[in-house]
């Protein structure tokens, strides 16, 4: 049984996904995290692709609610922690789409309520969506806004390894949205010159190959199955941390749509150089030429090209640009072990400073205390 302690701030998290679960294990000093039970509204007609979207919370077992990803409906004091404003306004009514202005306006009113104490974005790119996506310039709301980067745990030095030969590349997540097509194509080309390289695709055939284009899916599953140097299969978090990440030499994520990219932080913490795109918040983690390479996709409107959660078509110009650049960067890292080591150690340094629990917890403790004044 929990015994109330006036010196402890009890914070209830609304979502237990990977990043929130990670953060909950390392609370600020004087803070105790728990996961709240949410309930749907009695006559709920709001639908969203985001889990537990706009659910209700009623109770007094926590001093403060931290709503993760989705806003929460409650009379308790709460703060909202999100990747961007698109997530905040990702809802419809019984499957019928609503104009953006109506959705963003409704969320704005919810966030302006007195019991919503803070809106915490995970990146400066996320904060910018207040203006670029929602068109919000209201000072009352802007005064509630803060940017606090998520944190990644420090990986012990003995778990950070650098291989001179037999390079293994790693890709994880939704195959089509995260650029798996480009990864497989670039890997095939690179293998002609470097036949000993390997590719680990941490994806599930049923869960992570989201497309209604049956030919596209079949084509790439056949490519993967016919290449003995590619391993396909999703793994649990413990196996990822203890077995997969420590043995990876290059992390590939040429993603088309990305709200933050926590997997990139995990790779950096293990000293793995990253090749990704310069989309959204990724440049706030990966510094091009310092701890990885970034593929420039600025001239393509990725949010228009790849709307929603399903990729059915990849425009040829975009596809060739990403694959060709990815292939070039892969080859540069394969033939330069010292560059991989240099990028990897730079990534470790960034993960241990900019994205450390020490920095995050100090800032979040300030926010929690301010919310409870």
Per-chain topology:
Blueprint: E1 9-13, H1 18-24, E2 31-35, E3 46-47, E4 56-57, E5 64-68, E6 73-74, E7 78-82, H2 85-88, E8 92-93, H3 100-111, E9 116-121, H4 124-132, H5 139-142, E10 145-147, E11 168-172, H6 180-193, E12 198-202, H7 214-225, E13 230-232, H8 237-244, E14 250-253, H9 262-269, E15 274-277, E16 292-295, H10 302-305, H11 316-334, H12 337-353, H13 357-372
Parallel strand pairs: 1-2, 1-5, 4-6, 5-7, 7-9, 9-10, 11-12, 11-14, 12-13, 14-15, 15-16
Antiparallel strand pairs: 3-8
Helix pairs in contact: 6-11, 9-12
What fraction strand?
Answer: 15-25%
Helix and strand sequence: EHEEEEEEHEHEHHEEHEHEHEHEEHHHH
Number of strands: 16
Amount of helix: 25-40%
Mean pLDDT: 94
CATH class type of the largest domain = Alpha Beta
- The best one-word shape is globular
Supply Rg.
Answer: 21 Å
Largest sheet composition: 6 strands, parallel
The helix tally amounts to: 13
The low-confidence runs, each spanning 5 or more residues with pLDDT under 50, are: none
Structural class: alpha/beta
Looking at the structure, the CATH topology of the largest domain is Rossmann fold
Secondary-structure arrangement, i.e. CATH architecture of the largest domain: 3-Layer(aba) Sandwich
Q: Please indicate the count of domains.
A: 2
CATH superfamily of the largest domain: Glycogen Phosphorylase B
Span between N and C termini?
27 Å
Going across the major beta sheet, what is the strand order?
2-1-5-7-9-10
Textual characterization of the structure:
This protein folds into two domains: 9-151 and 356-372, Rossmann fold (3-Layer(aba) Sandwich), CATH 3.40.50; 157-353, 3-Layer(aba) Sandwich (Rossmann fold). The two termini are 27 Å apart. The chain is an alpha/beta fold and 373 residues long. The radius of gyration is 21 Å and the shape is globular. β11 (168-172), α6 and β12 form a beta-alpha-beta unit. The mean pLDDT is 94. The relative contact order is 0.13. Helix content is 36%, strand content 17%. The strands form four sheets. A six-stranded parallel sheet has the order 2-1-5-7-9-10. Strands 13-12-11-14-15-16 form a six-stranded parallel sheet, sandwiched between helices.
């Amino acid at each position: 049984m929990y015994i109330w302690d006036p010196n402890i701030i009890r914070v209830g998290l609304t979502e237990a996904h990977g990043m929130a679960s990670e953060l909950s294990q390392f609370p600020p000093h004087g803070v105790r995290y728990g996961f709240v039970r949410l309930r749907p509204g009695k006559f709920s007609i709001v639908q969203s692709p985001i889990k537990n979207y706009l659910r209700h919370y009623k109770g007094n077992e926590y001093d403060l609610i931290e709503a993760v990803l989705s806003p929460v409906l409650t009379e308790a004091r709460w703060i909202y922690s999100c990747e961007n404003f698109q997530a905040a306004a990702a809802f419809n009514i019984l499957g019928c789409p609503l104009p953006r202005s109506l959705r963003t306006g409704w969320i704005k009113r919810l966030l302006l309520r007195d019991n919503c104490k803070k809106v915490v974005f995970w990146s400066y790119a996320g904060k910018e969506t207040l203006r670029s996506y929602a068109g919000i310039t209201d000072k009352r709301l802007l005064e509630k806004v803060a940017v606090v980067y998520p944190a990644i745990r420090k990986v012990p030095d003995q778990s950070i390894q650098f291989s001179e030969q037999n390079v293994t590349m790693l890709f994880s997540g939704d195959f089509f949205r995260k650029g798996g097509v480009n990864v497989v194509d670039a890997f095939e080309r690179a293998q002609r010159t470097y036949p000993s390289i390997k590719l680990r695709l941490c994806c599930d055939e049923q869960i992570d190959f989201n497309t209604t284009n049956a030919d596209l899916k079949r084509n790439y599953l056949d490519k993967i199955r016919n290449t003995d140097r590619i391993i396909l299969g999703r793994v649990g978090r413990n196996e990822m941390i203890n077995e997969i990440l420590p043995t990876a030499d290059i992390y590939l994520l040429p993603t088309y749509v990305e709200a933050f990219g926590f997997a990139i932080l995990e790779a950096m913490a293990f000293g793995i150089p990253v090749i990704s795109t310069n989309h959204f918040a990724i440049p706030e983690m990966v510094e091009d030429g310092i701890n990885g390479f970034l593929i420039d996709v600025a001239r393509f409107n990725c949010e228009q090209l790849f709307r929603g959660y399903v990729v059915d078509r990849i425009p040829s110009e975009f596809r060739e640009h990403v694959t060709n650049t990815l292939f070039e960067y892969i080859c540069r890292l394969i033939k330069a072990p010292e560059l991989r080591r240099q990028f990897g150690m730079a990534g470790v340094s960034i993960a241990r400073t900019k994205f450390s629990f020490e920095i995050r917890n100090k800032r979040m403790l300030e926010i929690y205390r301010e919310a409870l004044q």
